[in-house]
Design goal:
Chain A: It comes from Phytomonospora endophytica. Chain A: One of its GO terms (molecular function) is DNA binding. The complex is a heterodimer of chains A (408) and B (115). Chain A has 408 residues and is mainly α. Chain A is 68% helix and 0% strand. Chain A has 18 helices and no strands. The N and C termini of chain A lie far apart (63 Å). The mean pLDDT of chain B is 90. Chain B has one domain: 2-Layer Sandwich (Alpha-Beta Plaits), CATH 3.30.70.1060. Chain B is α+β, with helices and mostly antiparallel strands and 115 residues long. In chain B, a hairpin with a 2-residue loop joins strand 3 and strand 4. Classes of the chains: A mainly alpha (408), B alpha+beta (115). Chains A and B meet through loops of A and helix 3 of B.
Chain lengths: 408, 115
């Protein structure tokens, strides 16, 4: 017999956000009540199902349980309020309802939830934590641990974010078509931030896994959006290299030195297939281009066999859409690999003169790599030393020291 | 929902030819938003140098010449909007010419239920 705890955990992974979204709609935007009732329904399931057996449609059971509790809480609150003033708060539609016969009858408003959590009137920080709480179903304590703040601080952050939604009148909806071009990138950006926040940090593995799961969900809900599929392809292709990114001592391993047999072939194939489907729509965007670059790396059987001219071309196109100095830096690397280090050094010089990357360790680190490849060891050593001063993590500092030692 | 729309100068921004040429006409904006029942009231205000700040401390009325806070962004007018939600208020604000050359702050009213 299956363990009831496993069944509940499985339903939680897919069902939490769906129940929360349904309850937010039902309560007219009371996010706290929605989460509380969803939590309560799962707690009841854990108590009752071992005795009564798992219901035929667990999601329907949980949704109805959460819904009935929300109605109960609202009704009691309105009776309380009614003692003080006349108020016919409870609408006839708020009667407790029996469980729907099919899961398809449960409204699916997760897309509304995604767009509301990622509304551009919220700070990026608020978007990120709301997404983890309401969509991924991580507890306040788990999110606090992932972001290295106290549970109390994280609780306040979540509270303020929900207050802003309520008080500022942020609508619970999928934006109309004319707003999608400006709203969808915010959603994609938040999911990619989540992926990167967790990537390579064992204590945040859950955040990475949730980012991938939410990217899949977004594609399922918006199958015609090539950029959503591009994001999914990108995170799959990055994640496929996960096991090779650090060695047994936890040291960072550069892409060209990674053991490619550790890459996850099935994930790479899945990422490529998603990218193909996205590109077929012929509406290229930043995420599809980044995924195409990641695919070039992931499908090269050796570092030397990497198709650098193709990658350089993709970066040139990406720079046109996203004219940031970081993209320009990556393009310089690709040009250096395709046409030789001497081709990249003038571009790196321009970037240094531009000043926008001042203080960014990867600029001197990239210059150092190119100088090393050009056989200009003395200058390379100086550039590595400059990068070492700026590198933000100990792992990156160790990596740079190894490069300096390798200069001989 | 009601929003106070604060219309401000942005001293950190010099409008380029695009903002100057493409910015909507304020009279058209007023006409449209009045017609849609969105703009309930609106006025231009005199600059901060004409402002007087009033405080009562210990029962005594204290006056200060000038605004309560020295901010670079000076309020030059306001409107009160009645909108379905923040998305509509953002749309209305983004059609105001001062959003193109200055900046606009949207403050939701404190709704009666919460008071």
């Amino acid at each position: 017999m299956t363990d009831v705890g496993d069944v509940v955990a499985a339903v939680y992974a897919d069902g939490w956000s769906r129940i929360v979204a349904t309850l937010i709609r039902l309560t007219g935007g009371d996010w706290d009540l929605a989460e509380e009732c969803a939590q309560d329904a799962f707690a009841r399931a854990l108590r009752r199902w071992p005795v009564s057996g798992v219901p035929e449609r667990p999601l329907a059971w949980l949704t109805t349980t959460a819904r009935n509790r929300a109605i109960d809480v609202i009704r009691r609150a309105s009776v309380e309020a009614g003692k003080l003033r006349e108020a016919g708060m409870v609408e006839p539609s708020m009667e407790p309802v029996p469980a729907p016969a099919y899961d398809a009858e449960i409204p699916d408003e997760r897309l509304e939830l995604i767009f509301t959590c990622c509304h551009p009137a919220l700070s990026v920080e608020a978007q990120v934590v709301l997404t983890l709480r309401s969509l991924a179903g991580m507890s306040t304590a788990e999110i606090a641990a992932a972001f290295l703040v106290s549970e109390k601080t994280m609780g306040q952050r979540l509270f303020r974010a929900k207050q802003k939604i309520k008080n500022a009148g942020i609508p619970f909806r999928v934006p109309p078509a004319h707003l999608l071009p400006e709203r969808l990138p915010t959603v994609l950006h938040v999911l990619y931030l989540l992926f990167n926040a967790g990537y390579g940090d064992p204590s945040r593995e859950r955040v990475t896994a949730e980012a991938i799961r939410l990217a899949r969900l977004l594609v399922a809900l918006m199958p015609d959006e090539p950029e959503a599929r591009g994001l999914l392809a990108l995170v799959l292709l990055h994640d496929a290299r996960h096991a090779a990114r650090a060695d047994t001592d936890g040291e960072l391993v550069a892409l060209d030195e990674q053991d490619r047999s550790l890459w996850d072939g099935a994930r790479i194939a899945e990422g490529e297939a998603e990218l193909e489907r996205a590109l077929r729509r012929r509406r290229a965007g930043p995420f599809q281009l980044q995924a195409a670059i990641a695919a070039c790396h992931a499908t090269a059987t050796t570092a030397a066999g990497t198709d650098w001219p193709q990658i350089a071309g993709l970066y040139t196109e990406l720079l046109r859409l996203v004219p940031t100095p970081v993209v320009a830096l990556n393009r310089a690397v690709a040009i250096g690999m395709a046409d030789g280090p001497e081709a990249a050094l003038p571009i790196l010089g321009e970037l240094a003169a531009d000043g926008r990357l001042d203080g960014y360790h990867l600029l001197p680190a990239t210059r150092a790599e190119m100088l090393r490849r050009a056989g200009r060891d003395g200058e390379a050593r100086e550039a590595y030393a400059a990068a070492l001063e700026l590198a933000p993590t100990e792992a990156e500092r160790r990596f740079l020291r190894r490069r300096i030692d390798g200069l001989g | 929902m009601k929003y106070l729309m604060l219309v401000c100068l942005d001293p950190s921004f010099t409008p380029g030819p695009n903002e100057v040429d493409d910015a909507p006409d304020v009279n058209e904006w007023v006409k449209e938003m009045d017609g849609r029942g969105i703009r309930l009231i609106g006025e231009r205000t005199r600059p901060a140098s004409d402002a007087t700040t009033v405080r009562v401390r210990g029962g005594e009325v204290l006056l200060t010449d000038g605004p309560f806070a020295e901010t670079k962004e000076q309020m030059v007018g306001f409107d009160v909007l009645d909108c379905a939600d923040l998305d509509e208020a953002i749309d209305v604000a983004s059609k105001h010419p001062m959003a193109w050359g200055g900046l606009i702050e949207l403050r939701p009213f404190w709704e009666g239920d919460d008071a």
